[in-house]
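HUMAN:
Sorry, I am quite new to this. Are you able to go through these amino acid letters and fold codes? The numbers rather puzzle me.
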Amino acid sequence: MNADALAGIRRVFDAFRGGDPRALFEVIAEDAVWIVNGTVPVAQEYSGRARIFDLFRDTRRLTDGTYLSTLRWALADDEHAVAVYRAQGRRLGRALDIDQVLLIEHARGVWKRITAIPSDPPAFEAFWA
């Protein structure tokens, strides 16, 4: 287990819930790539921290600020991490309440490549369609 990588994961999820926003700049590399799987508009490859932050802002905007990501558990070694979190939100009369997985490639706790995988792809697709 890599305690520093796990601490970074907790910091990011705390920042999502209103904690220290510097964590996002310190943990997510400037040249990181964040991949959201699926066929809906938010499902794409976001290259660079600025584009990743656009995803975060769009997620908040498209859900009128209701989108929440609550960390459930995480594991990490010196190069890889997995974070399972509960994704919840409301949008256009639809509700999302599913687990999602982040597969994270990191270097000394700094996220380089992140792949987001919903545990219920049909529910994810229906929410974001």
Notes: The longest helix spans residues 3-16.
